[in-house]
Amino acid sequence: MTTDPYSLRPVTDTEFAPWCRMIADTYGQDLTDADLAIKRAATDLDRTIGAFDGPTPVGGVSIYPRELTVPGAEISTAGIAFVAVAPTHRRRGILTAMMRRQLAELHEHGESVAALRPAEAGIYGRYGYGPASRGVMLRLDKRAMAFRADVDFGGGAIALADPVEARSTLTKLYDRRRHSTVGWSDRDEAAWDLRLFDPPERRGDATALRVAVHTEPGGEVTGYALYRRVGNPDGSRAVRLQELVAFSLPAYASLWRFFAGFDLTDWIEYEAAVDEPLPHLLVDPRPARADTMDRLWVRLVDVDKALASRRYSAPLETVLEVEDAVCPWNTGRFRLLADGDDVSCEPTAAPAELRLSAAELGAAYLGGTSLTSLAAAGLVEELSPGALGRADAAFRGHREPFYPGGWAFPLY
Q1: Is residue 1 predicted with pLDDT exceeding 80?
Q2: Is 96 part of any known ligand binding site?
Q3: How big, in percent rounded to 5, are the helix, strand and coil portions of the chain?
Q4: What pLDDT does residue 233 have?
Q5: Residue 278 burial by CB count (10 A; 0-12/13-18/19+): exposed, middle or buried?
């Protein structure tokens, strides 16, 4: 099918409300006027693409610029959100047309990396995105949680605070953490507005958003946690931990002990890092049940610029043969040279050592997804013996990349 009957263009201010409601409807959501106002404040209409059938919006995709922490660097990244096609206009090529146009515009503007958190993971591989980080849904049986006797909880204290009143403290701690944690991004004022936006009609069976703050004996604030208390459909009661930041093991352990001590609570629920240290603090790690899921998907819009922007865990010299059906300027061979802060990636005619697509490079970009595991799945081909192991060691990070914003990246 063709998109010729449909115009693709930026959304105007007067079109934003019907466009945004159309997007929300595809996700099965209703929007209040307050929802619309806060989303409008966070959205740059010049960075949106709307698909229109006459005056009616039938599709959309938007960009929210973010600074993303990658191995050894922080880079400007196009955070992609509000991707949708109205159910009345599916299978007409609209999504493909929007995604191709967006990638071409990013290339023209010199933006080399894009990232998104997909609602449906099966969609974006066809557009060159690869699953670059994973998370786990932890469901902890609070009644069976017991900390090891040698865990150091320090001498700090935990106090409750109003999330809005504590905002300046939260922003400072978050910003300090995100500079050193791969997968975290910056949050501007509009993103924090969205993170703390908490109207009663959006809570369901949960309480209002709460914040616990950890302070050292000397007065230094070294951690916080955003959470709600929830009544589950099965009748159980839970703490839903939405975000936890800690700058020492005692602060981290103290915050978890705080939640483990809640009365009238059966479970603690938390979307956490794959290598979350909490289970190692417990006498028995089995109360921490975990379901692994994909999180951030990364697209290298310009392979050479993107690969030269991050740092590598070991010196590397290799030639990559890249295939990219959506962004043809990426198709070809690239020599990647990396030694500490000296990194370059340039086109070459030299024989390739590895053959892969841009999607696989996107998957490996944050240092989480292993090139070796991708090769085992037939997605990376080793053309020179030993090249795969060397590249895998260089691409991998010290810890698994992780983003604490849940499903809402890049909105917060």
Answers
A1: no
A2: yes
A3: 30, 35, 40
A4: 84
A5: buried
The pTM assigned to this predicted structure is: 0.95
Q: What is the pLDDT of residues 24-49, one digit of tens each?
A: 999 999 999 999 999 999 999 999 99
Yes or no: say if 242 and 112 are a contact pair by the CB < 8 Å rule: no
Whether the pLDDT of residue 2 is over 90: the answer is no
pLDDT higher than threshold 60 for residue 258: yes
Are the C-beta atoms of 161 and 211 separated by less than 8 Å?
yes
Judge whether 7-133 and 136-294 match in fold. yes
To the question of domain 136-294 being in CATH 3.30.470.20, the answer is no
The domain 7-133 belongs to what CATH superfamily? Answer: Gcn5-related N-acetyltransferase (GNAT) (3.40.630.30)
* pLDDT band (50, 70, 90) for residue 74: very high
- Rounded Cα distance between 298 and 229, Å, is 33
Tell me: is residue 245 an annotated ligand-binding position.
no
The closest of 230, 223, 286 to 258, measured between CA atoms, is: 223
* Residue in 129, 227, 403, 412 annotated catalytic: 412
Asked if residue 95 belongs to a known ligand binding site, the reply is: yes
Classified by CATH at the fold level, domain 303-395 comes out as Nonspecific Lipid-transfer Protein; Chain A (3.30.1050)
Q: Single out the catalytic residue among 124, 224, 252, 270.
A: 124
- Domain residue extents for the chain: 7-133, 136-294, 303-395
Q: Which amino acid would we find at residue 357?
A: S
pLDDT, mean over the chain: 95
169 is in an annotated binding site: no
Is 83 annotated as belonging to a binding site? yes
Query: Is position 124 annotated as part of the catalytic site?
Result: yes
